[in-house]
Structures are given as C-alpha cells and as structure tokens.
C-alpha cells in the first residue's frame, strides 16, 4: 500500500520536472527561431519616438535582444 503511494508520488514529481524542462527547452528554441521583435519593428519604433534609425543603432539593438535570449 505505502509502496504504491510512494511510487505514484515519485512518478508525479518526475513527470512535472521532465515536463518543465521539455517545455522550457521548446520555448527557448521557438524564441530563437521566431524572435519577438525584428529589425523592421525596431526601425518603426525608433521613428515613432522621433529618432532617426541608423543601421548601426538597429544592429546594436538586435544584438542586445539576441544576447538577452541566450
């Protein structure tokens, strides 16, 4: 009786832990392939703020975004 309950609880804990790490890895891979923001969005955002977006500034911001995801 106690053995069955112990095995069930251990299986539940293992399932939750494995599920968490699989979901985390999947989400990281998804964000790497489909970044939430791209160069065009940064360019539009800078223009809306009244800044003139140079390619150098856009590249710097993209690099910061990519480093943040790692």
UniProtKB/TrEMBL annotation:
<feature type="transmembrane region" description="Helical">
    <location>
        <begin position="6"/>
        <end position="23"/>
    </location>
</feature>
<keyword id="KW-1133">Transmembrane helix</keyword>
<dbReference type="Pfam" id="PF03672">
    <property type="entry name" value="UPF0154"/>
</dbReference>
<keyword id="KW-0472">Membrane</keyword>
<keyword id="KW-0812">Transmembrane</keyword>
<dbReference type="GO" id="GO:0016020">
    <property type="term" value="C:membrane"/>
</dbReference>
<comment type="similarity">
    <text>Belongs to the UPF0154 family.</text>
</comment>
<protein>
    <submittedName>
        <fullName>Uncharacterized protein</fullName>
    </submittedName>
</protein>
<dbReference type="InterPro" id="IPR005359">
    <property type="entry name" value="UPF0154"/>
</dbReference>
